[in-house]
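Format notes (please read before filing issues)

Several people have asked whether sequences and structure tokens are stored in separate files. They are not. Every record keeps both together, in the order shown below: the sequence lines, then the token lines. Line labels are part of the format and must not be stripped during preprocessing.
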Amino acid sequence: MSHVDPITVSVVQHRLGAIVEEMGEAMLRTAYSQILNSSRDFSTALCFPDGRLLAQAEHVPIHVGALPWAVRSVQTFFEGQVGPGDVFLLNDPYRGGNHLPDLTVFVPVFDAYARRGRRPRGAVMGVFRVSDLMREALRHFAEDITVRVYDVTDATNRRLMWAGGEAQAEAPFRRSRSLRVAGRTWLVSSDAGPQYLREGHTGSPWSVLLGGLLASFLLAGYVSIGIRRARVIDNLARDLDRMSREDPLTSIANRRVFDLRLRREWQQSTRTGAPLSLLMIDIDHFKRFNDSLGHQAGDACLREVASVLAMTAARLNDLPARYGGEEFAVILPATDEGGAEQVAKTILYRVQRLEVVHPDSPTASHVTVSIGVATMIATSAKAESELVKVADRALYRAKKQGRNRVTVAVPSDALDSTS
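Then the structure lines:
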């Protein structure tokens, strides 16, 4: 090494060590902002304990082709002991040989103030296609700089990434650092060879070295930045809760939430003796509307009607829900028959006031609804499904009598529901 200027030695030694010691997130953003912001090789989804996966979230970039729907991994994650702030790599993410890994990362999402050991509400699942990412990042790598990343979590010491040629047994300069990445331990090692030092008088080798070392941190930084971007925990918890409860088209409660809430309100009525009312609502001649104006207009119509329900059934415990297709339901706890009928008439009037043109309705020139109203005081001898049957019978009579009207259940509806 006598041919190397001592000042150059000192500068290289210091600079190489400094770059290895710093994660350089700011540099990553600057040097690779285009990759981080627009790469099709980073995908996330929201997953739930029952194995469902949602790739529909405004704040998360999605490339569906990159998502392996790893249901087994999802189940393994939710069966484990996880806590707020944990980040996990599940299963063995490495394929062996010279293949760079595809990493699957899970970040749990809890309710506020969740305790460790409590089952998470859901999770963010991130899939990172490392091979394509690194191929882009290392296109201009210096031949005399060697960068290696090993997974040293266990005794296998698997090599995750390398660039610039094979490592030399005796390199003039070598720096290593251990990193914790998504629950794994990685060792980052970087060598600068004699050719690099001989070219040290120009600015080019410095930029190459910086780019090479940034590439060595890119994988870790990419995971970190991607998770941080998707992990605004408070907002994401609300989003997960909303996605599991809302009908995606109308943004009111879905059928699953309706069934759960009706059961709960039925039990409450059994305990308190308070009346429980239910409205079953059907958009009149909706198939004709779709056939004449198209499905996009049909979707818009469903959203308009849902907004009327949400605006009208606005008490704290009221629940408007999409029951299925063009049919909706409204649960009205602690509401007698007269109160429920008044709510139904308000809905009928407000839908008429929307004046959504229906060119093929034999009932009216605009969209209308038919509503069945049922009120019961729950008993342990009956199930909540009885209330649905009675309200449905009332809805059937409203449609049979000409539609665009409110019909309140009569005793024969209750008798018909048990037959």
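For reference, the curators noted about this record: The mean pLDDT is 68. Residues 247-418 form a domain with the Alpha-Beta Plaits fold (CATH 3.30.70.270).
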